[in-house]
Here is the input.
Amino acid sequence: MFGKILNTFGTKILVAFINLAIAIIISQVLGDSGKGIQSLVLTNISFILIFSEIVCGASLVYLTSRHSFSKLWLPSVLWALLIAAVMGALMSLLDMGLDRSLALHTAVLSFISSFASINFRFLVGKEEVKKANYNTLLQPLLLVCTLVVYHFVLGYRDVYGYIIGLYMAYVGSSILGVCQLRDEYKSLKIMPLQKYRDALKDLFKYGFLNQTGHFVQFFNLRLSYYLLNAYVDAGQVGVYSNAVSLAEALWIIANSIALVEYARISNSTDKAYNQRLTLDLAKICFAVALPAVLVLSLLPSSFYVFVFGPDFGAMATLIRILAPGVLLYGIFLILGHYYSGSGRYFMNTIAALCGLAVTLGCGFTLIPRFAATGAAVTASIAYSMNAVFLMVCFLRESSFHAKDFLLTPSELKEYIVKIKNHYLK
Here is the structure.
């Protein structure tokens, strides 16, 4: 398992650097307004995916070991197609910060992304984490290559380079996923409707519980984008989204650990083992993330101006405000995957509701007055609220105490030895 965590971490580090290159290219070529539009495109895709993943989301990881591939695949794909069509129609009528042509693209892209995610989650559910990681890496690689060709070779300067890049990324990832699951696709069978009954029941049961939390959490993480666009302008969205992207890149550590943790706990029934594993992983996550947060917080405004362009100097202040909440949210991710892996998705939903209360209360108050700074303060408090709630719940149901979340010198030495053994063997 330790090797899978390191492989996942290495993959996500590469993905983070590629995503940073993507953000730099868009920021330098299109400025803060263009970056704001790009952020809204991606945010709207994420919004559609919340509904799509009621059936074809993270619950597939939990159910892969409990139902056959054939019983899970068809309902997942059909549901993703239905949601993309319905949400695409709604977004073309409603004002989500984009014109109608971009709204249509987001709907189509959401379906292709869902298909790619279905394959990815089957791989994780089978604990084929390395294959899933290769799939994850392909998407940003194809996207950044498309942007380079579109902006620097062909010389175009509009947001459609990003749209084309997303098509390339999602289609490429879908094709790779089919190849990685070729044995499952070869045995794929279309069965009578009654054969899907149990699988459908579980897909909606666990998926609805899981996505309720994701729906709430989406607004915790991204409501500020819409508020900034409504109360200020797309330029503030662009600056804030870059700050958020860099700060949230620190979650690479937590997400790398949580992905393997989720797969392991989903296949385990030993509650004591799962709790001990979760505590150990939370401690590692915090210990590794802390120095990274400190380094990122110390970078001056001139650094961000040099990297992203003259419109982005305010990123330094925004990242410092976001840093405490981002650090604590990493622990929330580890604890959240403990509850998800044991099928208790409602715990994440309650935690997300606590954060949403902060987001609504502070967002509508601080953002109209302080713009991106108000958004950063709101997000940092909401992130912290998520983590504190799950930490209290975890301690109450386990035999651990708050001090057990601190990493001891002997444990740190043990983890360093494991890392050395992994890379030097």
User: Anything to note?
Assistant: The chain has one domain: 2-424. DSSP finds 16 helices and no strands in the chain.
